[in-house]
User: What shape does this take?
Amino acid sequence: MTEITTKKIGGIIYSIASPDLIRKISAVKIIVPELYDEDGAPVRGGLMDPRMGVIEPGQVCETCGKPAGRCPGHFGYIELARPVIHILYVSTIKDLLSAVCHNCGRVKLTEEEIKKIKSRIDKLRKQKRWSRLSKFVKKYVYSRAKKRSTCPHCNYTNPKIEFNKPYYFFIEEGGLKRKMYPLEIRSILEKIPDGDLYVLGFHPTYSRPEWLILTVLPVPPVTVRPSIVLESGERAEDDLTHKLVDIVRTNQRLKEVITTGAPQVVVEQLYDLLQYHVSTYFYNNVAGLPKAIHRSGKPIKSIVERLIGKEGIIRYNLLGKRLNNSGRAVISPDTKIRMNEIGVPYEVAKVLTVPERVTEYNIEWLRKLVLNGPDKYPGANYVENTEGKRLAITNDNKETVASLLKPGWIVERHLMDGDIVIFGRYPSLHRMSWFGHYVRVLPGKTFRIHPGVCTPYNADFDGDEMNIYVPQTEESRAEAILLMELSNHMITPRYGELIMGGIQEVVTGIYLLTQDDTKIPINQAVDIVYKSNADEEGLERLEDFINRAKSEGRDYLTGKEVFSVFLPKDLSLTIKDVKIVNGELKEGVISSEMIKSEKGKLFLYIYNYYGKEKALKVIERIFLLGICYQYLHGITCGIGDFDIPKEAKEEIDRIIEEAKKEIDVLYEKYKKGELEGVVGRSLRDVYVDLSQKKIADALTAAGSLLIKKYIRKDTGTYIMAYTGARGKLTDVYQILGFLGQQAFRGGLVEFGYSGRNLSIFKKGYDHPIVKGWVTSNFSKGLKPWEMFFHAIPGRDALMDVAIRTSKSGYLYRRLSHSIYELIAFDDLTVRDSKGRIIQFIYGGDGMFPQKTESGTLDLEFIVNEVLKGLSDKKDKDGSSKKTKRTGRRKK
Amino acid sequence: MPKKSKKKKVEKGKKEKLRSHSEIDITQHYLVPKHEILSEEEKKELLEKYKVKLEDLPKILITDPAISKLNPKPGDIVRIVRMDPVAGESVYYRVVIEE
Assistant: This one.
């Protein structure tokens, strides 16, 4: 091993390249516009000169002696016949020309001003406030110097400079306009003394302004602009090479024309052409310049266009690296696989591989896989021999590869059942967006996930796609299993409750199943228990329940009994009305509070007392049970669910009418100024508050009337809303009662014309009925203006969401990156990677929310449980080593 | 430049107003937690407890208004006792640094 020396980079300085620097870093001077000679060999002194690096394998670089791939490439240079303006620096040149005296080269500022500015720049430089510095220089130095035409140093009256896009400068001399050539501009810039450059924002040691005008053009190495050999054998050159050829050719012609003393017009024409070529070589998208094109008419890609933008080198290649052993596909649900499994299509499993080391124990098995080849499913795609050489398995060579196989080789076999993969969904906003899943290879073309894991992934099946990564080393697989596997992350670190649990019909199914009067015939009960994937223990318990029912003379099981089949045998707990004794649900209905995802009190209890594996099993079984029972019932949502008698409608209309009248009275009072004011609120605020309260009261009155008297309790809609599976009761109110006040930007709908929302209303009328109160309901239909009222906040919310997601996403990215390296240590301090303390106690109280219940710890309960555990242990082995360990944290 | 001078005059007026406000003792405000400077012994103890050097502690500027009345020297450690509605009382230490 060679010894590794480490060095610390103190800083990086960017500056403008001087002509001397360009010559110094170059290996070649380029003078010939031709690329290759008749034999096809690159011309020396041409743009493909081998001294600028090699790209074809087998060759050795003449400059550094390294083969292709190791040779980084070397610059060349073109000595320009006449100086040329660098197109990306025109604005700087323009500013300098107007800020500087053309006669003496000093800034057009008095000594006093210079002194002041200098001290300010010194301060800003010391504080490293670069953006402030650049703003300051632009605002106070250039703008002030620009205004002066007489130089305060030599009293020379500077002529007016006119700038014409893209790179022409004109000077007014004695009332005549004259073109200013780069040579002249350069000589002015050369005159600027170093002291004044400092004031102008330059650092004279590193950058001189005359370098903004090119006299020497650097030529990038061939590795930057490789030529491609087409299928037809022709060579196709890179865009940059084409452009450089143009530059060299024009440059040579210009040189000849100057030396032979051709007429001024010809020289000028060629000079302008050179300027054009050099400009479009840097940036081919300049306003006012025609785009340089290929013979085909396709515009040439300049250096700037190469780097910039989404498809540029920086964002596409450097920040957007792609990787192997990964995949992406549409997801669809599958309740029959486990929650920590993922269904992978055969097509995907045949491409993604796992490297498996050949040993004498698995050689027979791996040989079989190799013999299957890359196309037959349990096969293999690659082998790697002991020397590390990779060989693709094909249908032609699979027999020979199989016979060569011996211990020490590595076989890249297809993905198989039981392999661990990392699976997740973007945007990955929390750590539960990526889990370790075990593979199940299944027919079909989508990834299959258990619907129970939709909540942490925030996934649904309306076309969502998810991503898979296959770990390639033993270490990464071990990490994926031990750290990332799904059951390790069922509890959210946000507030310490289970994130996974029943969703949608599971909630209704279990709710209906555990009603007091649910009776299930024994054969049907057995059926749904089997369908719910019952294991030995479950079947045993089912048998017990059936025997008990038979001895009691029942030919049915109660729903509570069927539910209890999947509970642990010794589970006893009481949560609110729910009472479970020895693994049997005795009292209470299992509602959304007990089993719904992100709540799931019951599952949390099982998780805490029986461990993650058991909890996962119970969740999966109860999930299936809910679905199966729900199938027997059939829950749908239809317009028939909202049939209410005529009296009901009349009664609701009466409620609305009453509210309207009450608000009319309020309005009258408000108009007359008889309303009682409240401190700190305007009279209108009081009026709005009171009228809004009347509307809200009317809505709840209508709602409770509906619930109490009219709505049928056995409809799918009501059950869904009541059990918390989907929808809320307020949605029912909106369908049958009325919509209520539409809020827009935290107030009434104040929108449109002056004094009124729509032209159909009276001007100045300030009644809620014209300010967004919708008195119709969804089943009756909205009146035209009400539809507008309803659409306004709807559109507003839509826009708001579109803006907010991007804003909050960026905000979250910045936050997470800034706390990325912080670690909470054993002594509860939070420190960064250099050991600096950020917090003395994590979060101010040392609490880890994941280990709490909604942010609190029931200390008494924990101590009791620990003591109970201790006494149990004492009974068993007589001694107890572990003393209290949870007592330290205070609430 | 008549516009600019006008602006500056307004700013000056503002500053005068602010100056009169600065007579209020902000350390008495209910939102400003209690600041106190540790003795040499306490300082040693603290650094020993957390096994850190002075520069590894969070910093506070010597000009911070909350400690201006305490006569701080660079290198002093300030103890801040904060009340948090959720987390309760929590103690924080910051080392005084020069500007």
User: Anything to note?
Assistant: DSSP finds 27 helices and 28 strands in chain A. Residues 808 and 814 of chain A are 10 Å apart (CA to CA). Residues 877-891 of chain A have pLDDT under 50 and may be disordered.
